[in-house]
Amino acid sequence: MRNEKDGIPQWDDEEIKKHLDDESIAFVDVREPDEYDEGHIPGVPLLPMGEIPEHIDRMDKDKTHVFICRSGGRSQKVARYANEQGLERAINFEGGMLSWKGETKSGEEKRVQETSDLY
């Protein structure tokens, strides 16, 4: 189901699963490292919310970015911020990891150090 909140498209669990292998979409987990380590969607890199501003100018404006957090609140804020900074295709994972019914992986898998780590 697709809907919109504050001008930001909202994807649910099924929409996320459908697009995980789409290379034109960058999935970004914006939680804190300890939350990510407890369980994240395999292959999705960690870029904590507080570090977004230092990377935002180098994010590919031609890509769709889907932001993920625990419940959808922080990722909604990041999606709105990203949209205001020129990432016109920012999407929020509504319900976040609390609503994720797919596979998860624990431990640090991929932490964004350089913006190129997203792509």
TrEMBL record:
Q: Which PROSITE patterns does the UniProt record give?
A: RHODANESE_3 (PS50206)
Question: Which superkingdom?
Answer: Bacteria
Task: Name the SUPFAM superfamilies on file.
Answer: Rhodanese/Cell cycle control phosphatase
Query: Which SMART domains did the record assign?
Result: RHOD
User: Which residues does the UniProt record annotate as the domain Rhodanese?
Assistant: 21-109
InterPro entries documented for this protein: GlpE_sulfurtransferase, Rhodanese-like_dom, Rhodanese-like_dom_sf
Q: Where is the signal peptide?
A: none
Query: What name has this protein been given in UniProt?
Result: Rhodanese-like domain-containing protein
